[in-house]
Amino acid sequence: MTSIVLIDDHPLAINGIGAWLTGTGRFIIAGTAGCLEQARELMEQLVHLPQIIILDISLGAQDGLEFIPALKEICVKRKFPVPRILVCSMYEDQFLIKLAMESGADAYVPKSADSREILRAIDAILQGGSYVNEKYQISKPDHAWSTLTRRESEIVYLVKRNYSAKQIAKNLFISIRTVENHLSNIYVKTGVSSKDDLKIL
C-alpha cells in the first residue's frame, strides 16, 4: 500500500481525509502534523519516509509551502528520495496554484474537489507526473507576473491571504517600509493600484 503523511492544521480535515484514504484499501497514513515544526520532526523520526505528502498551504499563521525546501534538505541528509507532494488547499486562486507548483509541489487539488479528483492526482504523481485541474491551469504565463522577483511573489501570495503590511513584515522578517517599497514595485509591474486589486488578479 501507498504510505501518506497528512500536514494540515485542522484536525477534522486530517481525520476525515485520513479515514477516507484508509478506507479505500490503497493507502496507509504514516503520520500527521499540524504545523511546520511537527512536520519537520515527523520527517526526522519516521523510519521510512512516505511516498506521498498531502500538504495544506495555510498552517495557521504559517506558510505550508515553506515545508517543501525543508523536506528536500531532510531527504538529502537522510539519503531518501523526496516524497511526492500534493497540495490540498481551500484556495483556488491561479496565482497561488502556480506558486505552489513552482515551489516544488507535484499536484494541486482544492479542498472543494471530490474524492475522484484526489485519486486522479495521487495516481498521476505516483506515476511520476503532475496534476492540476485544467480549469486552473494558465496556458501562457502573464508577462507582468513573470517579472516579479521571488520576494515580490511571496508578498503577493500573502496579500491574497489577507495579510496586512504589518503581518507581511513579521512573516518575512523585513520592515514595513520594505514591504511598502515592494508593493510599489509590484503595482508598477502588474498595473494595479492597490492590495484589493491584487487580491482579485
Key structural traits:
201 residues, alpha/beta, Rossmann fold, Arc Repressor Mutant, subunit A, 2 domains, six-stranded parallel beta sheet, 10 helices, 8 strands, globular
Your description of this structure?
With 201 residues, the protein is α/β, with parallel strands linked by helices. The protein has 2 domains: 2-132, 3-Layer(aba) Sandwich (Rossmann fold), CATH 3.40.50; 143-200, Winged helix-like DNA-binding domain superfamily/Winged helix DNA-binding domain (Arc Repressor Mutant, subunit A, Orthogonal Bundle), CATH 1.10.10.10. The chain contains 10 helices and 8 strands. The strands form 2 sheets. It has a 6-stranded parallel sheet with strand order 2-1-3-6-7-8, sandwiched between helices. The protein has a two-stranded antiparallel sheet with strand order 4-5. Helix 1 (11-23) links the parallel strand 1 (2-7) and strand 2. The longest helix is centred in the C-terminal third of the chain and has 15 residues, at 176-190. It is globular and about 50 Å long. The termini are far apart.
